[in-house]
Amino acid sequence: MPTWQTHERATLRFAEMSKAGALDLASGVGGKIQKDEVLSAVEKYEKYHVCYGGEEEERKANYSDMVNKYYDLATSFYEFGWGESFHFAPRWKGESLRESIKRYEHFIALQLGVKPGQKVLDVGCGIGGPLREIARFSSTSVTGLNNNEYQITRGRELNRIAGVDKTCDFVKADFMKMPFSDNTFDAVYAIEATCHAPDLLGCYKEIYRVLKPGQCFAAYEWCMTDAFDPNNQEHQKIKAEIEIGDGLPDIRLTRQCLEALKQAGFEVIWEKDLAVGSPLPWYLPLDKSHFSLSSFRLTAVGRFITKNMVKALEFVGLAPKGSQRVQAFLEKAAEGLVDGGKKEIFTPNYFLMGRKPNSDSNVPVGPSSLL
């Protein structure tokens, strides 16, 4: 049980760590958006969502603009609080957040069976934390696909620092229209990224197209579980909080993701919600009742300090106007994620894996009304 002395030491340590980090956070808010246009971008982003009267169809129709605005606004906050890998992971007892994230990335590489010399595609790669980890773990060449210029610029700098810039790179493109030839990659994965797709079947079909026959695709998907009740107002509120706080046009059910994988033409190898039966819950780092020195910035105390630090930075002009609004909707997302996890109506850990057959004869033709 942490004592007040522990909290005090952690607070002092956080303050020391944050001197440099605060300036990086302040300079990064808004990404490629002009600093005097950040507040306007925040307002436009918010209007896409239910809390501000937005509609799902509008979010899907304008998903590229919405998701780009989201990551321009939120990336520096993510990196400040979470590190280079923007995803959750189920945890074992005694395992730190960082260790669980690395293991989770190794797990998907092992499931795909990636080998040295292969060409691997990371769909929706963020700033490349998983890409770098998997490239070092497996000695493969990994291409990161991302439609956000700011994240690509940041990712290339981190690749250079990590020493993987010769074997790994980024391509700026929409994952609904990939600029790759058919049958290009030996393996494809997506880590909590294709949840941004306006049409999951269309996204999975593009992944199928660029994957070599006989090879595999694996993903961790953000989903509502079968426990989600669309007629329950509290459930709908939680879903809306996650959508606005994480740049999502909608959140699909696990069975919809599985059906999309099948309809895209993949042979399903296996699928499972890895949150079920995890010794420690995936949402633990965001739970305000949890305290951790190793992930202090994510605790209630750490987030309180960050909130006030952002307020001060915006007041003195080091952070652009609108920074507090970004921090506020990210905080709302954290609350929605924890509530969704505790009620078991939401999971970010739905794993599914499919193989592209050696023959394309089973690929369905025509649109689907399922998604």
Q: How does the SSE layout of this entry go?
A:
Layout lengths: L3 H25 L9 H9 L9 H6 L1 H20 L14 H16 L6 E5 L5 H10 L2 E6 L2 H14 L6 E4 L12 E7 L8 H11 E14 L8 H14 L7 H10 L3 E7 L26 H17 L6 H20 L3 E10 L16
Parallel strand pairs: 1-2, 1-4, 2-3, 4-5
Antiparallel strand pairs: 5-7, 6-7
Keywords:
371 residues; alpha/beta; seven-stranded mixed beta sheet; 12 helices; 7 strands; globular
What does this protein look like?
The radius of gyration is 20 Å and the shape is globular. It has 12 helices and 7 strands. Helix 1 runs parallel beside helix 11 and helix 2 packs across helix 4 (63-82). By secondary structure, it is α/β, with parallel strands linked by helices. Residues 1-20 and 363-371 have low confidence and may be disordered. It has a 7-stranded mixed sheet, with helices on both faces. The chain has helices at 4-28, 38-46, 56-61, 63-82, 97-112, 129-138, 149-162, 200-210, 233-246, 254-263, 300-316, 323-342; strands at 119-123, 141-146, 169-172, 185-191, 211-224, 267-273, 346-355.
